[in-house]
Amino acid sequence: MTTQRKAPDAARRNEAARRAILTAALDLAGEVGYARLSIEAIATRAGAGKQTIYRWWPSKGAVLFDALLMLSEGQDDQPADLPDTGDLEADLKTVLRATVDELNDPRYSEPMRALAIEILLDPALAADFAERLDEPMRELKRRRLRRAQQAGDLGPGVDLDVAVDLLWGPLKNRWLHREGPLTTEFADTVVETALNGLRPGQSSSSTSR
Amino acid sequence: MTTQRKAPDAARRNEAARRAILTAALDLAGEVGYARLSIEAIATRAGAGKQTIYRWWPSKGAVLFDALLMLSEGQDDQPADLPDTGDLEADLKTVLRATVDELNDPRYSEPMRALAIEILLDPALAADFAERLDEPMRELKRRRLRRAQQAGDLGPGVDLDVAVDLLWGPLKNRWLHREGPLTTEFADTVVETALNGLRPGQSSSSTSR
């Protein structure tokens, strides 16, 4: 936005500084943890001025949030939409297994966990996060489930937000509250149980485990 | 434990001081919020010495945790077991509706939220919480579901821990992350959707909504 009024070289320099700051924030969050992460240390590592950081971001939580957005943008294989092969169960397992891998990767998981906690403490950051990441992601999930509903693979009366909660909530909870190991088996069981329900004998694909 | 070696009067005085400190912690957490809660303010409000508090509890999070345990012990109608009328769906709705009421009560909800966040930051408090509150509660839930499984109301292959996650997780998430209003309607929908599953036409009690 603001770069439009600047000369191309200045815009390039700003973008390079921005990336250096975000990379430094990610690296340091992984090395020292979020609690001991400081704007001063980020500035030193990035070779930038503290004032530059304070001018661009209101808090260290905001720096980390942008750093995580940069990380996910950097993945070229990041899907713009959830997979739709026509097999809902298989597609959901693919997505949840990818989430398991991501949450087991400390470079992503530790800053993300710090951010999740910071969001609970900072309403402004929470609103920004909801608008820029959480709500768009939830809409992608709802969209895939809506297509499944239209195809007759999801009950016509199913509340799509509750469906998102049932499918993605258990993984998020287990990760954030460290309630147990995050495995592909857990992801698969959540998908099967949410689709088939807890009642007995509701689906031929419900196997005894 | 330690009171056994003390004279009865001293034990009674200790118990009175303990209750005054926990009540002061609850009241102050509600009034000023957890972030601005201090051991000093708790001591002043309770008419106790700061050293007494530091001797009995390692952190303000630990004080608040005991205060919340005292609050739930004080409810005489607190069930030792989850209801079992033989109607699993009705029983689960009863339990989740009671949780909705509890989480909408600021006297309970605000300190509990502060504690939930503190637990994410403090592994020792997390371990204490898991042992004294979270795991016993989860066992009560598993026990009710195990009886339902034995009665044939729950699929024989259902993983009871995943079932607990599907039934109780959405409410906890929506509350902790302030994702939406906590209503009895939401609680009912979660119970129905988890029991019936997301697939179409799996149960006669699945109504279009």
From TrEMBL, chains A, B:
One Pfam family, short name: TetR_N
Q: Per the UniProt record, which residue ranges are transmembrane?
A: none
Q: Which residues bind DNA?
A: 38-57
Where the record annotates domain HTH tetR-type, the positions are 15-75
GO MF: DNA-binding transcription factor activity; transcription cis-regulatory region binding
Enumerate the UniProt keywords alphabetically. Answer: DNA-binding, Transcription, Transcription regulation
Q: What is this protein called in UniProt?
A: TetR/AcrR family transcriptional regulator
Organism from which the protein derives: Herbidospora galbida
